[in-house]
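User: Predict the complex with 2-acetamido-2-deoxy-beta-D-glucopyranose.
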Amino acid sequence: MKASVLLLVAAALCVAAVSGQSHPLSDLPAPLEGVETVFWLPEYPEKQFPAGALVEAVVGLHNNANERLNITAIMGSLNNAQAFHQYYQNFTYQPQQAFVGPGEEAAVSYYFAPDESFPPREFQVALTVFYNTPSGTYSSTFFNQTIDIVEVPSFIDIQGLFLLLPLLGLLAGAAYLVKSALERYGILKPKKGTRKVEVKKRVVAAGEENEWLKGTNFNQGGAKKVAKAKAPVKVEGSAAALEGTPAVVKKTK
Ligand SMILES: *[C@@H]1O[C@H](CO)[C@@H](O)[C@H](O)[C@H]1NC(C)=O
Ligand SMILES: *[C@@H]1O[C@H](CO)[C@@H](O)[C@H](O)[C@H]1NC(C)=O
Ligand SMILES: *[C@@H]1O[C@H](CO)[C@@H](O)[C@H](O)[C@H]1NC(C)=O
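Assistant: Here is the predicted structure with 2-acetamido-2-deoxy-beta-D-glucopyranose placed in the model:
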């Protein structure tokens, strides 16, 4: 009888010890007087975290106490912004090894990742640093504020990309048209063939131009040149005129 009672008491103590260990945020020790903290969120100064992103929080400790601080761990949680007692996520308990002598300062980083499943809205995040001194065990909550979970930027980027795709297709099509047109002019560039053949080709090319340049200045110029090109002497003038045409011919060079 006595033995089983003892066993039960022992078991209860074990459970208490284990649950005490797994919930370091339940009964936070008080801060040590004279210890001041500041924080930075280097990558997210606006406190807007994409769900699933790894967030670095830096805590700076200034030790105005007379004892050396032994920084042992940092832990945090993500809670309901309106009802803090509702814990949505406990971030990992990360052991630390740092000492801060009296009058000294130190900075330590903590990394946490709000779960990917959180919807974009307001939450509260609390981050606490644990430390001890010869006189006891303490903790300081260096961050306890509302934050915004925001949509993951890469998702927005992908959406934007899909919107851009048709536009890119159009641009590619236009580029292809210009390229093939330029290639045609490239073939027309004075070769070492006979002038007559050259002129003939030019007339054909000018006819093609007319089809897709109808109503443009280029079309008029082209037509004029076709007529003049029939006289072999004017061929060079014709080429010059084509080169003088702004948009298209510039790109041949
Ligand atoms: C998170 O920590 C709080 C406070 O210590 C505790 O009440 C809660 O049970 C923990 N939640 C989980 C899922 O461990
Ligand atoms: C610092 O704290 C840790 C954890 O409590 C302990 O193991 C270690 O001995 C301490 N170091 C010093 C120098 O007090
Ligand atoms: C954080 O602030 C809330 C009030 O907004 C408070 O209820 C809670 O105890 C604080 N948490 C810590 C760890 O200091």
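Residues 23, 25-26, 77, 87, 90 surround 2-acetamido-2-deoxy-beta-D-glucopyranose (ligand 1) (CB under 6 Å).
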